[in-house]
Structures are given as structure tokens and as C-alpha cells.
Amino acid sequence: MLNCINSSDCVGNTTDGEEETFPGFNDPLNFAFTCVLSIMLALVVFSLGCTVEVQKLWFHIRRPWGIGLGIVCQFGLMPFIGYILSIAFALNPVHAVAVLIMGCCPGGIISNVITYWIDGDMDLSIAMTTCSTILAMGMMPLCLYIYSSSWVQSGNIKIPYTNIGITLVSLIVPVSAGIFVNYRWPKHAKKILKVGSILGWLIIVIVTVISVVLFKGSWAVDTSVLIIGVIYPIVGYVSGFALAFLLRQPWKRCRTICLETGAQNIQVCATVLQTSFTPKQLVLMFSFPLIYCGFQFLHGVIFLYWGAKMAVRPTITRPEMNGVQQDQVWAHRGSTRARGSQ
Length: 342
Known about the structure:
Blueprint: E1 14-15, E2 18-19, H1 27-49, H2 54-62, H3 65-88, H4 93-104, H5 109-117, H6 122-147, H7 149-153, H8 161-169, H9 172-184, H10 186-214, H11 223-246, H12 251-262, H13 266-276, H14 279-285, H15 287-312, H16 326-341
Antiparallel strand pairs: 1-2
């Protein structure tokens, strides 16, 4: 199926030479939805900036091993995994681009929440989420250009890089403002963070409801799309954890990088789709981010339970270590290496 952007002459956007219509589609409602979604995303990103402490962020930037590994997972592993899954399941170009955009998104606030629940490295988690949000302005279009080139060159779809770039660049202002607010008024920043967390979940609910009302038929998804939505988050979690573990990162950092890899920013993905593609393409695209969102949270909760079990399970490796948990041993070794590197 051919799909083009803003072209009434494209075969993929017409049927028998006539412009395709969408029963029940409401242009004013679509415009209002786009505006509300963009404003709410700006507020969520602003609240994300309110979690950033400049000194701790600078500490991780000066010792960028953890952030660098997270960026490799975020913009190296996830887009590549999305591309492989799209090819393996033979997705049509529109569905494949939705999967790629999801894989190219920066980390989401949900990763910070679950990291806090499992006693992960919160400073690293927030630093990774902030840096990936900023780097997404360049990395998302670059990854889309690399992995979608075969579909674009064949004329199956056109990627609106300008619209995507404008959406991403507009995020730099609220996240910078949030960092400044936390620097000047840390008490107020904590209150803003609570509001932003509520808005983040509210966006997901609004997107779900509106997608049913505005894009009728969007939930009639192919089985392959549903399967990818189920397995993609868990593959991201496992890949991030495995890479961090193979590079001998501390146990706490392994869990943090794992979550930052698999937990994508659903709000960014939904906003990019809404502001960049036509209604016809959104009918096919919009359900995937919501499927991914549901299963990334489910897998995150399972991971939380598994992490809690690992944290309380004692492992005796030597007689003199009676009652010492293996998790504590790994954490001690990690902190020793960190002090040695300093």
C-alpha cells in the first residue's frame, strides 16, 4: 500500500481516483487534539526538567560511561531492534515507520518511576532521560533516515522530517526551563514534578480515548503489529541489561540501563505521529504506541517483582560471607571500581 504525505495525487491516499474520506473524522477536533497534546507534552517535559539537579547531571557528564552506554542502547539498540522486527514480521511501510518512531524515541518518565521503585540509580536514570530527550532532536531523524530508507526510496512512504524536527526542537525550551526552575526554586520544582507525573498518565488516557473517537478503525490491528507491541519492550529491557552486564557495570546500574532502554517516551511518540502524518496514516499508526505503552508497563512491573525477589534472596558464596546478599556484593564491587576510576 502506497502512503504519501500531503499529496492528493498519491495513489496511496486515494481510491479510484477520488480523495478518501474518513467517516466521523472531525477536522476541528483533530486540530484541537493536536494543540492539547503538544501543550501537555511540553508540560510533561517541563516537569522532567524539574527533576534534574545541575551538579549531579554535570557529574555524570564528566564521567559519561553510564550515560554513553545508555545512549548506545537508546539510539543504537532500540531502532535496530525495531527495524529487525519490522522486517521479520513483514510489516507494511506505515506500520513499520510507527514501530521505528517508537524505537527512536527518548526514554520516558515511567523508567524513572520504576527505577525509584526497584532502588536503581536515580541520578543516572534522570540524567539518561534528560540527555536522550535532548539528543533525540538529532538522533531520531538520523535513525529514521537510516532505517526507513528502503521504504522511502521505493516510494512507499514519505517521512516528514521537518515536522518531526520542529516537534522535537520545541521540547528543548520546556526541559531547559524545568532545569532552571529546579536550580532556582527546588521546592516548587517538586510540586511541579507531581503535576507533571499526573499529566503524563493523563496524556496516555486522552490519546487512547481520542484514538477511538477520532481514528475509527485504528484498533483493528494486524496480529503481527500486536505481537511486536508485546515483545518489543521486553527485548529492549533484556538487551539493555545484557549489554550493561557484559560491560561489567554495577548491578544497580544494570537495572537502570535496562529500564531506560526498554521504557520509551510514549507521549513524544504520540505527539510526533499526530503532528506529522495524515489522518489515513494515523488510523494505521496510532494504536501501536498505546499497545507498546501497556506492555512496557506490564513488563516493567514484572521486572520490578523480579528485582525485588533478587534483592531479598541471600546467596552464600563463602563461609565468612554468611547472610550477605549477592546483590550487595555486586554493589560493593561496583562502588570499589568507581572509586578506583576516580
